[in-house]
Amino acid sequence: MLRNIKVIVAGEKTVGKTSLVEQYTLGKFSGQYSHSLGLNVTTHIAMAANRPVKLELWDIAGEYFERTEFYRNALACMLVYDVTKEKTLQQLAVWLNVCRRTIPSAQIVVVGNKIDLGYRFNTSWGPYFAKYANAPHFTASASTGENVDLIFSELAKSALAARENSGPAKSE
């Protein structure tokens, strides 16, 4: 049976959330910024723990973080920041708070995107925030594809394991 795993992809605007999702699901990077309007939902069949799963990737536009109905029944949150903009990492505390408040059992990962452009602030701050969030930290480049598949794969595995330990999801 194909398991559904709803994943929230969250962070400030321009951090590359949509580009990460497109690189993962389509294997492409457009290079052109297009502002997400509210919410984009993409599905993708992936393998987690040697089993196929259906990932529902909910890419939330940066200004819609308080729309808690988007988070309902999610099993995971990917919190994305831009390694060239320190403020986007600072703002992840707001996104973390919303995720923890609305879906306390969600698996969380912290992702520093745009590593192909080089860090413009202390490289230890992302891992430090992830430790504070009790979440793994990854770096990625939606542009080159570096680590993108790995991140989604690890998130799918941890969400599937958490789901199976807690029983059936409400969305099935």
Characterization of the model:
The protein has 172 residues and is α/β, with parallel strands linked by helices. The chain has one domain (3-166): P-loop containing nucleotide triphosphate hydrolases (Rossmann fold), CATH 3.40.50.300. It has five helices and six strands; from the N terminus they run E-H-E-E-E-H-H-E-H-E-H. The chain has helices spanning 17-26, 86-90, 92-102, 125-132, 148-166, and strands at 3-10, 39-48, 51-60, 76-82, 107-113, 137-139. Strands 2-3-1-4-5-6 form a six-stranded mixed sheet, with helices on both faces. Strand 2 (39-48) and strand 3 (51-60) form a beta hairpin.
In short:
The chain is an alpha/beta fold and 172 residues long. The protein has five helices and six strands, in the order βαβββααβαβα.
CATH architecture: 3-Layer(aba) Sandwich
Q: Class by helix and strand content?
A: alpha/beta
How many β-strand stretches? 6
Distance from first to last alpha carbon: 11 Å
List the total number of helices: 5
How would you name the oligomeric state of the polypeptide chains in this document?
single chain
Q: Quote the beta fraction.
A: 25-35%
Q: Report low-confidence residues grouped into runs of 5 or more.
A: none
What's the CATH superfamily, by name?
P-loop containing nucleotide triphosphate hydrolases
Output the CATH class name: Alpha Beta
Share of residues in helices: 25-40%
Shape: globular
